[in-house]
């Protein structure tokens, strides 16, 4: 079962893809990218400037003995990452 | 190098956002050497793509993205689409498949089946992408189903590929990988594409708006699941990333995918010159089949023509003919002329009026073989303007036919040549301000009636001018549209600027070809079910196909109707084409400016011009028509011409050598033909070259090139000053002149219509009212008819017809004047009872022209009446009573009521509404309306009522309709005031405030400041010399037209009122513009109903105060003038169409106080 979170997290990337992230004070190392997709924002609700897009990554990662599948989201407009959900 | 194989341009209607030219340019910048165009549902952009590729040195691939018909794969929602590409040499197969798609299923919803694709597969590559049935099955993870579908495609199509797309959407890469696996297992090659629909990433927002507009859904993620910024023209590097993503890092597989894509692209490269036939040195034109060698055939027919036209002894004619035939034969166009002559003969044989128009009138061949009736030698028309040695491009012959029978002509052409050889030309309607607001408003979920109001508030401007117009134009600034809530609508609407919206039948172009026509152009069904090429008129020419323009002209229908009415009523058969062209009385009519209803010369500006110019010959009319164009008006040719014509100024020529060329127009350059002759006379370059030079003058760059050419080629004997002065003429003239051949072709129907107005006045107006050829609403035509002495007769169920009918109502000739009490003269105008001082100073014969005739209001004028009802009513005439009418004509109840309301049964039941005294016990229109209800209820109850019962109508308690109620009913049902002019109800007020009538204006001095009033009947904002937006408005005040000009200086306080009112009061300064011409420069204006209300509430002092108050301006008109290099300036809001604003009578026409139903018809002391 997956759980939804929505916590802000810190992410390090390599070649544009996440390689490590810190979530709830633990450092996770990414072992593989399972999926990656991009969703455009509902730009018509916002003002004239570019609303940006949301880039989703579904990755396998481990932090010490704990591991699982995690869905991370990067928002180009706010330049911030969120932990969306986790299967662990 | 990567090649995009799947690409939608803006010619994928309401889907793509970039034009082929921009896409090709970007592809070339990215280093791509091949680019495909695969528009949705058609090849609308194919020729433009080929052309852009040729210019950029890119090899074109052309295909189409087609929808599959609802199929047997049994699952999932949404459309299934495949992409087909023409292999090298497969253009014909692609055209035929696209045509077949449009001919199966519903019109406008082209569909293909696997069988249809298989039938054309010989020349095609078929790509199955994620939108295909296979792709949908793969996305649904139903691999066995996907494999089965793929196997069926493979059995049907030899050259099949699987197309992988990944635009970074949810699970898209996954599906692509799955399809790659399927393709591998089935042994089908896989290619990579990006299903491109945008030029740049940010364009996806426009795409979203188009998706919403196309599917009629609001902008919402639920309806637009595919909003993505990745569907743009990606670079080869970016596509390599996509390949790597799909192949999951398997580099070898990714490389193979890209290599296969390249191979397919190379297999499909077309030679652009195969499509752009005209670019070849020896173009292989697509000509109609004549059956035998057309060259001697045309020669024979021309020789016959020389005798028939009486030109066999003319050396000029023989030499001219030889020169023309030489060019025609060298261009191998003989067959085209034979075919066109065959068509015009056939049209005339059908009894349809047919006239040549445009540059084709300049060809003697056209005259000799009977295509046109204008002899070019009579008017010094040049063939080179139509067809010349140096001219790249095809001649096209334009003919005008009766508008009401244009489609009959089309049908006859289709019948003669066969459906497969004929197609109409199409045209792309693009987004402009109004249409963009409509579609975006819909996508944003605004209520339809609000969208309608907002869209109609805008002038006909480009979509990207919407927000500029909102701040520039006073009437919009005041409108409340500048609201924040609408800001998003306007912002999005601007983004749609210029994108193709839908395809429509070109108003006149017809392709006449041979059996191979559909190998050259895809064809679809138009709204009227004519087959229509997907190419527009430019594409058609570039593709080497010849067309004929058959334009429906309402004036031709109007004149045809007039001729039948003359014959029916007077028993005279008029042969209009044989009428002499020097009838003094006709020119007298034109010279007085009484030209409302006449072809080409009825606008306020033209009425002013003809009254100043006073044409006396056909040649004068040709000049008049050419002068009234933006070019001559803007380069100020009109004043010098008129001054020289009337001898107020000596005629001047840039050089004596040009006297011969310019003498006919008093030294002023007016015609294209003169430019050709000036260039030829001063350089000796020949007329064909001169025509090329003239065309080059179209653009600013062209003008600077011609400038250099001119310096180099002018003969040495001309001095500096002459060269300079003649260059100024060429430069000023630029592209704005008028083709004399065109004017000569126009002048004929202009003269004919004026001749009919002068000599068969009532029948002329019957034609104009029936076919509405002009710019004025019917009420203006009716009023003009009245002033010409024609009576207007009310609707009568026993006398009215389908269309306007002429009736004899008295002796034809001069007085005794008709008895004012006779029912025939139903409108007794108060002004007519005034002293003679109020009469029009127009010559007395104007009012006598139509004496003795009446015009009967037709059934078709009744609002909401159906054609079937009209047919039944007319077939059942005459009727003996209302009940008889109800039984046999079987009108619907509302129609029957409306007919009673406007007096259709007055004569039958001897009603006299509007009279001063009604006594209880007299039958009224109201009683008849009640009786209609009785009849309808009787019909609904099964029992048959006894005849006597329904025949008997009991007079009721209610009084008869008043005059004002009658006029109100007429305006709302017929759209015009028949019994009395609506302005006459305001006579008391207008007299009290001292309004001057149209008929009196002529007697006022220049510069007098006056008040005028009337019904607004025309509003225009044409291009004028100053570059201002000038509003020209015509009011009808029952004694004639009042022409008002609103300059920008007064629009701040006037624009909203001018556009927003139907009845206007205006203050203006009299401007005498000619012996019989007068117009007013407006200073201020008011809605007459507002003045009327103040008058009723506060009395005459209040009304005077309102009219005397200083205007409050809503700010000036903004916007930058569009400036041309030769000094010609244009307002960005100059508009060719009618201006926006109120055009119909409002529901309330006058101030109603305390239960009264309108102003009393009796005079009150003010």
UniProtKB/TrEMBL annotation, chain A:
This is Nucleotidyltransferase. It comes from Spongiactinospora gelatinilytica. It comes from the Bacteria. The keyword Transferase applies. Keywords: Transferase. InterPro entries: DUF6504. One of its GO terms (molecular function) is transferase activity. Residues 1-87 form the DUF6504 domain.
TrEMBL record, chain B:
Residues 3-70 form the Polymerase/histidinol phosphatase N-terminal domain. Residues 1138-1166 are annotated as: Disordered. Its EC number is 2.7.7.7. GO terms for molecular function: 3'-5' exonuclease activity; DNA-directed DNA polymerase activity. Transmembrane segments: none annotated. It is an enzyme of class 2 (transferase). Keywords: Cytoplasm, DNA damage, DNA repair, DNA replication, DNA-directed DNA polymerase, Nucleotidyltransferase, Transferase. One of its GO terms (biological process) is DNA replication. It catalyses: DNA(n) + a 2'-deoxyribonucleoside 5'-triphosphate = DNA(n+1) + diphosphate. Pfam families: DNA_pol3_alpha (PF07733), DNA_pol3_finger (PF17657), HHH_6 (PF14579), PHP (PF02811). Gene3D superfamilies: Bacterial DNA polymerase III alpha subunit, thumb domain, Metal-dependent hydrolases. This is DNA-directed DNA polymerase.
């Amino acid at each position: 079962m997956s759980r939804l979170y929505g916590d802000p997290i810190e992410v390090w990337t390599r070649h544009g893809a996440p390689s490590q992230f810190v979530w709830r004070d633990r450092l996770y190392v990414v072992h593989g990218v399972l999926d990656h997709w991009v969703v455009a924002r509902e730009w018509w609700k916002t003002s004239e400037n570019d609303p940006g897009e949301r880039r989703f990554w579904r990755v396998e990662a481990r932090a010490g003995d704990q591991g699982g599948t995690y869905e991370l989201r990067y928002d180009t407009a706010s330049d911030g990452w969120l932990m969306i959900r986790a299967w662990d | 190098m990567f090649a995009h194989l799947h690409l939608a341009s803006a010619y994928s209607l309401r889907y793509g956002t970039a034009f082929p030219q921009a896409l090709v340019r970007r592809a070339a910048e990215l280093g791509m050497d091949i680019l495909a165009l695969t528009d949705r549902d058609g090849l609308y952009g194919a020729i433009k793509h080929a052309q852009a590729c040729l210019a950029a040195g890119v090899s074109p691939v052309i295909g189409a993205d087609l929808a599959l018909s609802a199929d047997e794969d049994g699952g999932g929602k949404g459309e299934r689409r495949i992409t087909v590409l023409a292999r090298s040499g497969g253009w014909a197969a692609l055209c035929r498949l696209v045509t077949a798609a449009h001919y199966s299923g519903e019109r406008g919803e082209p569909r293909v089946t696997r069988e249809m694709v298989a039938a054309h597969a010989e020349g095609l590559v078929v790509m199955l992408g994620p939108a295909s049935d296979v792709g949908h099955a793969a996305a649904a993870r139903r691999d066995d189903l996907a494999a089965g579908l793929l196997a069926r495609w493979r059995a049907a199509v030899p050259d099949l590929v699987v197309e992988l797309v990944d635009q970074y959407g949810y699970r898209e890469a996954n599906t692509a990988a799955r399809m790659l696996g399927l393709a591998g297992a089935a042994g089908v090659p896989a290619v990579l594409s990006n299903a491109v629909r945008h030029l740049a990433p940010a364009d996806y927002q426009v795409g979203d708006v188009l998706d919403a507009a196309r599917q009629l859904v609001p902008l919402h993620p639920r309806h637009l699941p595919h909003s993505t910024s990745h569907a743009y023209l990606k670079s080869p590097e970016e596509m390599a990333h996509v390949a790597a993503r799909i192949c999951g890092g398997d580099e070898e597989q990714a490389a193979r995918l890209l290599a296969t894509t390249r191979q397919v692209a190379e297999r499909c490269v077309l030679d652009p010159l195969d499509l752009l036939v005209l670019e070849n040195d020896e173009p292989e034109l697509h000509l109609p089949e004549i059956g035998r060698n057309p060259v001697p055939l045309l020669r024979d027919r021309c020789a016959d023509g020389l005798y028939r036209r009486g030109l066999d002894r003319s050396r000029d004619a023989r030499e001219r003919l030889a020169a023309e035939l030489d060019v025609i034969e060298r261009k191998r166009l003989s067959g085209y002329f034979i075919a066109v002559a065959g068509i015009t003969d056939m049209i005339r044989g059908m009894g349809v009026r047919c006239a040549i128009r445009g540059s084709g009138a300049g060809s003697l061949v056209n005259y000799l073989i009977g295509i046109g009736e204008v002899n070019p030698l009579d008017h010094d028309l040049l063939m080179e303007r139509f067809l010349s040695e140096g001219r790249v491009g095809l001649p096209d012959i334009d003919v005008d036919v009766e508008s009401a029978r244009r489609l009959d002509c089309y049908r006859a052409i289709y019948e003669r040549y066969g459906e497969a050889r004929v197609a109409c030309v199409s045209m792309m309607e693009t987004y402009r301000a109004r249409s963009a607001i409509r579609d975006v408003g819909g996508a944003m979920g605004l209520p339809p009636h609000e969208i309608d109001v907002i869209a109609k508030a805008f002038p006909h401007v480009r979509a990207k001018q919407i927000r500029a117009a909102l701040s520039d134009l006073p009437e919009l600034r005041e409108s409340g549209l500048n609201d924040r809530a609408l800001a998003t609508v306007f912002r999005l609407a601007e983004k749609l600027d210029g994108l193709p919206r839908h395809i429509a039948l070109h108003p006149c172009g017809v392709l006449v070809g041979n059996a191979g026509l559909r190998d050259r152009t895809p064809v679809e069904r138009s709204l009227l079910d004519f087959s229509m090429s997907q190419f527009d008129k430019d594409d058609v020419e570039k593709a080497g196909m010849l067309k004929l323009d058959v334009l429906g002209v309402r004036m031709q229908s109007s004149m045809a109707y007039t001729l039948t009415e003359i014959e029916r009523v007077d028993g005279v058969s008029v042969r209009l084409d044989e009428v002499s062209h020097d009838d003094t009385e006709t020119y007298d009519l034109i010279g007085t400016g009484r030209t409302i209803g006449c072809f080409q010369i009825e606008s306020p500006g033209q009425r002013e011009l003809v009254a100043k110019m006073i044409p006396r010959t056909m040649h004068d009319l040709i000049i008049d028509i050419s002068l009234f164009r933006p070019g001559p008006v803007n380069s100020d040719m009109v004043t010098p011409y008129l001054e020289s014509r009337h001898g107020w100024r000596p005629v001047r020529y840039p050089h004596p050598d040009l006297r011969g060329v310019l003498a006919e127009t008093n030294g002023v350059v007016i015609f294209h033909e003169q430019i050709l002759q000036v260039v030829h006379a001063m350089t000796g370059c020949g007329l064909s070259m001169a025509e090329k030079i003239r065309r080059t003058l179209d653009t600013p760059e062209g003008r600077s090139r011609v400038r250099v050419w001119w310096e180099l080629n002018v003969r040495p004997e001309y001095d500096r000053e002459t060269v300079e002065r003649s260059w100024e003429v060429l430069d000023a003239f630029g592209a704005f002149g008028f083709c004399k051949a065109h004017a000569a072709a126009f002048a004929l129907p202009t003269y004919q219509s004026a001749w009919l107005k002068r000599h068969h006045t009532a029948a002329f107006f019957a034609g104009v009212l029936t076919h509405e050829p002009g710019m004025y609403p019917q009420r203006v035509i009716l009023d003009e008819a009245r002033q010409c002495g024609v009576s207007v007769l009310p609707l009568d169920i026993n006398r009215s017809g389908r269309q306007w009918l002429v009736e004899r109502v008295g002796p034809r000739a001069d007085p005794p004047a008709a008895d004012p009490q006779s029912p025939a003269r139903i409108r007794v105008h108060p002004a007519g009872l005034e002293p003679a001082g109020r009469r029009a100073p127009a010559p007395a014969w104007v009012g006598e022209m139509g004496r003795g005739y009446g015009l009967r209001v037709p059934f078709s004028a009744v609002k909401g009446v159906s054609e079937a009802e009209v047919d039944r009513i007319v077939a059942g005439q005459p009727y003996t009573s209302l009940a008889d009418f109800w039984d046999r004509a079987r009108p619907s109840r509302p129609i029957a009521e409306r007919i009673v309301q406007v007096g259709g049964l007055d004569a039958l039941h001897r009603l006299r509404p509007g009279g001063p005294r009604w006594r209880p016990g007299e039958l009224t229109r109201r009683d008849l309306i009640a009786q209609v209800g009785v009849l309808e209820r009787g019909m609904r109850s099964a029992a048959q009522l006894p005849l006597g019962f329904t025949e008997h109508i009991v007079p009721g308690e209610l009084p008869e309709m008043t005059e004002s109620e009658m006029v109100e009913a007429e305006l709302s049902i017929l759209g015009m005031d028949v019994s009395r002019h609506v302005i006459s109800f305001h006579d008391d007020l207008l007299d009290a405030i001292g309004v001057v009538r149209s008929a009196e204006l002529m007697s006022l001095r220049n510069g007098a400041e006056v008040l005028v009033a009337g019904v607004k009947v025309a509003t225009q904002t044409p291009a004028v010399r100053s570059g201002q937006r000038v509003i020209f408005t015509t009011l009808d005040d029952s004694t004639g037209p009042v022409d008002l000009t609103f300059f920008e200086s007064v629009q701040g306080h006037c624009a909203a009122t001018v556009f927003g009112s139907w009845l206007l009061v205006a203050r203006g300064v009299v401007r005498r513009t000619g012996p019989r011409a007068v117009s007013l420069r407006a200073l201020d204006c008011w809605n007459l109903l507002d003045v009327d209300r103040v008058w009723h509430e506060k009395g005459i002092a209040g009304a005077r105060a309102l009219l005397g108050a200083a205007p409050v301006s809503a700010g000036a008109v903004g916007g930058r003038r569009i400036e041309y290099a030769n000094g010609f300036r244009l307002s960005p809001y100059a508009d060719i169409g009618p201006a926006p604003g109120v055009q119909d009578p409002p529901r309330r026409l006058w101030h109603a106080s305390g239960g009264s139903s309108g102003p009393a018809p009796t005079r009150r002391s003010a």
